[in-house]
């Protein structure tokens, strides 16, 4: 659509094409795998006994009278059970909610734990005496660092020097689900996610699977937790039940596996809560679309990083390159890395840290700073006439930009310090700088656009990198804009209000690329002619 400059590409077309085809193949395989998983959720084939298949029928088909009992204990399967809720008779197809007060044992009050054990068994029979009972143990407590309101933190620190340690908290909601659908499984094609929760009983030649019971861990939120103190005697517990289909059961199992994997990667409970809100507030098809969009963004980011590193590694002249833009991007990436270092996981920190290392290397490259290993000294190369002119244009654009950015950043920092409570001065400094980066980070390309305007050329830029990043940013802003207009948006307000901000400067670059293309061609041909005459 937009004509390109006649400059020698950084990589050979064969290498670039092979990498692009490889990534496209990976994306296609990922999309097909996601579609296959979706098909498996939606179309689990039932067993047909008339064709000679070995079938496993449901225990619920007999319609026996059942009872649900919820007990509390200190250690599952190894401590005394205390009955909290009893539902007799229990209908697997029903939906109910019970609110009870649970007595808190002394060991739990001393920063201990407490579990809930849910039994589904024959009515009128103790679950410990029923051979066909099913049970599921779930934690009613969890350990987190307590948070206090304004004015309470200093008092708590004086009264308890260990207040920053993890403290046992109460989960006030226990969500129970059971697969109530009468489904007959094929023993040879039993899904692996269902097999983990299945208990099979033999009755003559017939195999019967007991009810598939599950406690929904996704309903738990950090903001709903109640701190357990030494004076706590009773705590409220809401026990809810809902019967679900086989499709819903498998869906919940996979979502809980995802949450477990995120915890293993080091995600905090606050981050996991945001992901839970997204998962629970969306339907299955929207989640699949989100996964495909995420994969597309990862591919675009990888291609942008690869082309960016390759072009800068082979760049000999810094004519037309904005030093201020490179400095600003390096500083922004480092600040975001420091900000994420306080509150996010290693899975997110690794790509951000890699990008920060590349940006630091680009600063050394654009300033022509070289480290001489033999003498252990830094050597700065001199600039030629065209590069000095670029530096002059860069300083002029940065001076104009500072008239807007500096007053806004300073006033925002003073307002944040005066009206918002901060953990420490370091936290205030990092948060203020990161807020400035998020608010004015898109202006980092403004000096580069000014240099392009003065030089009447864009051939010194790697158009492929900007194209990949522009597409990536456009996708992110479209998603955040959709989240802004939806009722279940999980993006922050500052991110939502920044929709389409980056695209303004990106479209300005595309306009410059189209306008200055013919002048760049003439400049390239003139430079090529001078080289031939010199030879």
What do you see in this structure?
This protein is of the alpha+beta class and 535 residues long. It is 50% helix and 17% strand. It is built from 16 helices and 17 strands. The chain has a four-stranded mixed beta sheet, with no helix packed on it. A four-stranded antiparallel beta sheet has the order 3-2-5-6, with no helix packed on it. Helix 12 runs parallel beside helix 15. The two termini are 37 Å apart. The relative contact order is 0.10. The N terminus and C terminus are likely disordered.
Helices and strands in order:
Layout: H1 13-42, E1 55-58, E2 66-73, E3 82-90, E4 95-103, H2 106-109, E5 115-122, E6 134-139, E7 141-144, H3 153-159, E8 167-170, E9 173-179, E10 185-186, H4 192-195, E11 200-203, E12 206-209, E13 213-215, E14 226-227, E15 234-244, H5 246-264, H6 269-280, H7 284-313, H8 323-343, H9 346-366, E16 369-372, E17 377-380, H10 385-419, H11 425-440, H12 446-455, H13 463-485, H14 493-497, H15 501-515, H16 517-534
Parallel strand pairs: 1-12, 9-15
Antiparallel strand pairs: 1-10, 2-3, 2-5, 4-15, 5-6, 7-8, 8-14, 9-13, 11-12, 16-17
Helix pairs in contact: 1-7, 5-6, 7-9, 7-13, 8-9, 8-11, 10-11, 10-12, 12-15, 13-15
Q: Would you report the number of β strands? A: 17
Shape: elongated
Give the DSSP E fraction (strand runs of 2 or more residues): 15-25%
- Kindly, what is the distance between the CA atoms of the first and last residues, rounded to a whole number of angstroms? 37 Å
Low-confidence stretches: 1-11, 149-163, 486-499, 524-535
Helix fraction by DSSP (H/I, runs of at least 4): 40-55%
Spatial strand arrangement across the major sheet? 10-1-12-11
- H/I helix tally: 16
Mean pLDDT, to the nearest integer, reads 76
Radius of gyration: 31 Å
Strand count, sense and closure of the main sheet?
4 strands, mixed
Give the structural class: alpha+beta
């Amino acid at each position: 659509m937009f004509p390109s400059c006649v400059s020698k590409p950084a990589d050979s077309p064969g290498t670039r094409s092979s990498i692009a085809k490889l990534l496209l193949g990976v994306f296609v395989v990922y999309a097909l795998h996601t579609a296959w998983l979706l098909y498996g959720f939606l179309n689990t084939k039932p067993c047909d006994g008339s064709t000679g298949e070995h079938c496993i029928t449901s225990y619920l088909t007999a319609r026996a009278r059942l009872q649900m009992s919820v007990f509390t204990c200190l250690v599952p399967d190894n401590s005394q059970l205390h009955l909290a809720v009893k539902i007799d008779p229990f209908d697997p197809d029903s939906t109910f909610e019970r609110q009870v007060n649970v007595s808190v044992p002394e060991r739990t009050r001393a920063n201990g734990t407490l579990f809930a054990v849910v039994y589904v068994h024959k009515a009128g029979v103790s679950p410990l005496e029923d051979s066909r009972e099913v049970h599921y143990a779930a934690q009613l407590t969890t350990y987190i660092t307590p948070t206090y309101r304004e004015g309470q933190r200093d008092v708590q620190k004086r009264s308890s020097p260990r207040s920053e340690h993890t403290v046992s908290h109460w989960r006030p909601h226990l969500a129970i689900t059971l697969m109530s659908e009468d489904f007959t499984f094929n023993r040879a094609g039993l899904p692996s996610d269902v097999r983990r929760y299945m208990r099979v009983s033999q009755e003559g030649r017939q195999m019967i699977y007991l009810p598939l019971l599950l406690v929904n861990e996704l309903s738990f939120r950090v903001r709903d937790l109640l701190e357990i103190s030494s004076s706590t005697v009773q705590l409220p517990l809401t026990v809810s039940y809902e019967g679900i289909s086989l499709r819903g059961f498998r869906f919940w199992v996979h979502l809980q596996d995802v949450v477990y994997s995120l915890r293993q990667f080091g995600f905090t409970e606050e981050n996991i809560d945001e992901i839970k809100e997204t998962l629970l507030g969306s339907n299955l098809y929207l989640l699949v679309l989100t996964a495909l969009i995420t994969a597309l963004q990862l591919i675009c980011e990888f291609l942008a990083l690869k082309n960016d590193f390759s072009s800068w590694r082979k760049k000999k002249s810094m004519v037309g390159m904005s030093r201020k833009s490179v400095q600003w991007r390096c500083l922004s990436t480092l600040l975001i890395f420091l900000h994420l270092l306080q509150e996010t996981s290693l899975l997110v920190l690794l790509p951000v840290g890699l990008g920060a290392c590349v940006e630091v290397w680009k600063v050394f490259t654009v300033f022509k700073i070289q480290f001489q290993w033999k003498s252990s000294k830094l050597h700065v190369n001199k600039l030629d006439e065209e590069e000095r002119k670029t530096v002059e244009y860069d300083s002029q654009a940065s001076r104009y930009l500072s008239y807007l950015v500096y007053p806004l950043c300073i006033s925002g920092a003073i307002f944040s310090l005066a009206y918002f409570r901060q953990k420490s001065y370091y936290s205030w400094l990092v948060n203020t700088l990161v807020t400035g980066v998020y608010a004015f980070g898109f202006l980092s390309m403004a000096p580069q656009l000014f240099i392009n305007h003065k030089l009447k050329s864009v051939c010194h830029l790697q158009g492929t990198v900007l194209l990949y990043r522009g597409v990536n940013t456009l996708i992110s802003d479209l998603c955040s804009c959709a989240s802004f207009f939806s009722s279940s948006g999980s993006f922050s307000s500052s991110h939502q209000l920044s929709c389409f901000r980056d695209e303004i400067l990106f479209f300005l670059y595309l306009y410059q690329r189209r306008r200055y293309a013919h002048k760049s061609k003439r400049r390239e041909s003139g430079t090529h002619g001078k080289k031939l005459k010199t030879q």
